Automatic annotation (TrEMBL):
GO terms for cellular component: ribonucleoprotein complex; ribosome. It comes from the Eukaryota. The gene is rps5. Keywords: Ribonucleoprotein, Ribosomal protein. InterPro entries: Ribosomal_uS7, Ribosomal_uS7_dom, Ribosomal_uS7_dom_sf. Residues 17-71 form the Small ribosomal subunit protein uS7 domain. It holds the Pfam family Ribosomal_S7. Belongs to the universal ribosomal protein uS7 family. GO terms for biological process: translation. This is Small ribosomal subunit protein uS7. Coiled coil: none annotated. The keyword Disulfide bond does not apply.
Length: 71
């Protein structure tokens, strides 16, 4: 190895980020009175804020934690 440091944010690509947003919205809408559109809007707003209420942010943080522990 050349000793270069990797950016942990690079592990989540754009496609993966969109998939996580959609998955979070779908799980939030399941057996819920809110529509999927409302859940998707909430997910997007929470992700933009970097809130831990966002499914995508939680999964990204988990992925970074696992990647860091495997170094």
């Amino acid at each position: 190895m050349n000793g270069s440091k990797h950016d942990p944010l690079a592990y989540t690509t754009g496609i993966e980020a969109i998939w996580l947003l959609c998955t979070g919205a779908r799980e939030a809408a399941f057996r819920n009175i809110k529509t999927i559109a409302e859940c998707l809007a909430d997910e997007l707003i929470n992700a933009a804020k970097g809130s831990s209420n966002s499914y995508a942010i939680k999964k990204k943080d988990e992925l970074e934690r696992v990647a860091k522990s495997n170094r």
